[in-house]
Design brief:
Helix 1 runs parallel beside helix 10 and helix 6 crosses helix 10. The protein is globular, with a radius of gyration of 19 Å. It folds into two domains: about 80 residues, 3-Layer(aba) Sandwich (Rossmann fold), CATH 3.40.50.10860; about 120 residues, Rossmann fold, CATH 3.40.50. The longest helix is centred in the C-terminal third of the chain and has 28 residues. It contains ten helices and eleven strands. The chain is of the alpha/beta class.
Length: about 290
């Protein structure tokens, strides 16, 4: 193995230590950042993700509360619940754990969360601000990916990045964020022809498809940075990425593992957004009082 493994847990812990210091300073000013997580149904993976988010909040001193709702809740009842959270001054960020039951529109739910409390970075206003380069709450996984790439010491200016996957959650936003870092970005997806020819041109390869072991040695140029966003559970229960790790690690310069790569950074960026929201909302409160 020649590639340096990017330890997402270690990078995340370093950033969380900085977040904890910022939370401490905010509390000294009478501001306690607060995050509300809405969990609908009994999906085991969603429960696990929420448990991890609550634990991370405790680590850095952020107040959190979880609303566990029945899968049978109506869309209107869920929207009303979120509106009630909107009015709580001690809640600076609201996150609705996806996926939602089929009878509930994700778009309707995400739209009812105010942009200033949208710490997931999915509200159309935040997405629009991200697209044009204005200040926004950035989507957590794409933001975490950019931070991991920067951790390698790589100057993104002029680098060729190939992103595989065009989802609204990862592929599209990470492409935009990398463009803003002055990288040259190529996007590949299920209809791309001769994909390996394109991926072998990449200085940095971001794989976010959700297909186990899709990417092998033949897709990667020597020394490239490979960021594996995929999380796939095999029949034996083992979690693997979209990249054939052992094979690709023999040619790549840097590579993220699964688990322990991108995942910890996603939660860390959520914490950072919550602190940013608390700071911004407290300034608004100060302006109103003044």
């Amino acid at each position: 193995m020649t590639a340096t493994v990017i330890d997402g847990k270690a990078v995340a812990q370093s950033i969380r230590a900085e977040i904890a210091e910022e939370v401490k300073k905010l509390k000294q000013d009478g501001i306690e950042p607060g995050l509300a997580v809405v969990l609908v149904g009994q999906d085991p993976a969603s429960h696990s993700y929420v448990k991890g988010k609550v634990k991370a909040c405790e680590e850095v001193g952020i107040y959190s509360e979880v609303l566990r709702l029945q899968e049978t809740i109506s869309q209107q009842e869920l929207l009303q619940t979120i509106k009630q959270l909107n009015e709580k001054p001690n809640i600076h960020g609201i996150l609705v754990q996806l996926p939602l039951p089929p009878h509930i529109s994700e778009e309707a739910v995400l739209d009812v969360i105010p942009a200033e409390k949208d710490v997931d970075g999915f509200h159309p206003i935040n997405v629009g601000n991200m697209v044009i380069g204005n200040d926004a709450y950035l989507p957590c996984t794409p933001h975490g990916i950019v931070e991991l790439i920067k951790w390698t010491g790589t100057d993104l200016n002029g680098k060729h990045v190939v992103v595989i996957g065009r989802s609204n959650i990862v592929g599209k936003p990470v492409s935009l964020l990398l463009l803003q870092e002055n990288a040259t970005v190529t996007m590949c997806h299920s209809r791309t022809r001769n994909m390996a020819e394109l991926t072998r041109q990449a200085d940095i390869l971001v794989v976010a498809v959700g297909k186990a072991h899709l990417i092998g040695r033949e897709h990667v140029s020597p020394g490239a940075i490979v960021i594996d966003v995929g999380v796939n559970r095999m029949e034996n229960g083992k979690l693997v990425g979209d990249v054939r790790f052992d094979e690709v690690a023999e040619v790549a310069g840097y590579i993220t593992p699964v688990p322990g790569g991108v995942g910890p950074m996603t939660i860390t960026m959520l914490l950072a957004n919550t602190v940013k929201a608390a700071r911004a909302q407290s300034r608004v409160g100060d302006e109103v009082k003044g």
